[in-house]
Design a protein that fits this description.
two-stranded antiparallel ribbon, alpha/beta, 24% helix, four-stranded parallel β-sheet
């Protein structure tokens, strides 16, 4: 029997209702991914101590602020560290993370003004993963994992 590679995945992609708005997400190609990989679900925001639902938050440089102006950085940092522990425990080299998120976003995130403007940058967890050698893939690039 061939052993499948373990890959972290944002739990919301498995329709686990953990997003800030209390909803899950649909991930195209989920069935194909599950055939090829062991998917290890994580939600750094929940793992960091935030509830469901929670106020929207955006990253501004090294801080994460919610829409009410509360600094929630410590929750995002704690959740990122816990997610990294899971990545190491399961020897994950890849993570499929929710794009634009202040924790999971990779490449482009919201600018911190809550106006829908995207800027170059990464979420707190994505940054930590990258700095620890884990390749981060957003949902719009999922087919990279399906190429034979």
């Amino acid at each position: 029997m061939i052993k499948k590679e373990n890959i972290l995945i944002s739990a919301c992609f498995l329709d686990i209702q953990c997003r800030y708005d209390g909803k899950g997400s649909y991930l195209q190609y989920l069935d194909e991914l599950m055939e090829r990989y062991n998917l290890i679900p994580i939600c750094p925001e929940i793992m960091g101590g935030l509830g469901i639902p929670r106020k929207p938050a955006e990253r501004i440089r090294d801080k994460v602020m919610n829409i009410s102006g509360q600094d929630v950085t410590k929750y995002f940092e704690r959740g990122a560290k816990e997610a990294l522990k899971i990545a190491r425990l399961y020897n994950c080299k890849y993570a499929i993370l929710k794009e634009r998120s202040p924790s999971c976003g990779y490449g482009r995130i919201y600018d911190g003004t809550f106006s829908g403007i995207l800027i170059e940058g990464n979420g707190v967890t994505a940054d930590l993963f990258i700095h620890n050698g884990i390749t981060v893939i957003g949902e719009s690039h999922i087919t990279k994992l399906l190429v034979p």
